[in-house]
UniProtKB/TrEMBL annotation:
Keywords: Nucleotide-binding, Phosphoprotein, Transcription, Transcription regulation. The modification O-UMP-tyrosine is found at Y51. Homotrimer. InterPro entries: N-reg_PII, N-reg_PII-like_a/b, N-reg_PII/ATP_PRibTrfase_C, N-reg_PII_urydylation_site. The keyword Transcription regulation applies. SUPFAM superfamilies: GlnB-like (SSF54913). This is Nitrogen regulatory protein P-II. One of its GO terms (biological process) is regulation of nitrogen utilization. PANTHER family: NITROGEN REGULATORY PROTEIN P-II, NITROGEN REGULATORY PROTEIN P-II HOMOLOG. Pfam families: P-II. It comes from Brachybacterium aquaticum.
Length: 112
């Protein structure tokens, strides 16, 4: 099993979740996060004073999936979140050794 983690722009969330739902993903976790990559932060002016914002709001989407579904899910996230501009985000995967559904006690693929 794999944990697929994607950091995306906030405006891309609806498109990503719709694509994943159409593919058959039955669950995901969404977290509001902040960070920066190559684009760094940005400066803003408030009441005449300029200040630097070091982090930019992003969305983290996490999906537990079977290894066989990993490439398709990555491609879906990529296609539905890419704008071609700097700051679109990153996608990475992590191996998951075990999963347990708390409600039923199911383990492994049955818990997905």
């Amino acid at each position: 099993m794999k944990l697929i983690t994607a950091i995306i722009q906030p405006h891309a969330l609806q498109s990503v979740t719709d694509s994943l739902r159409e593919y058959g993903v039955t669950g995901l976790t969404v977290t509001e996060v902040a960070g920066y990559g190559r684009q760094g932060g940005h400066t803003e002016v408030y009441r005449g004073a300029e200040y630097t914002i070091d982090t930019i709001p992003k969305i983290k989407v996490e999906v537990l999936a079977l290894e066989t579904d990993e490439p398709a899910i990555i491609d879906l996230i990529l296609a539905s979140s890419r704008s071609g501009r700097i700051g679109d985000g990153k996608i990475w995967t992590t191996d998951v050794s075990s999963v347990v559904r708390v409600r039923t006690g199911e383990r492994g693929a049955d818990a997905l």
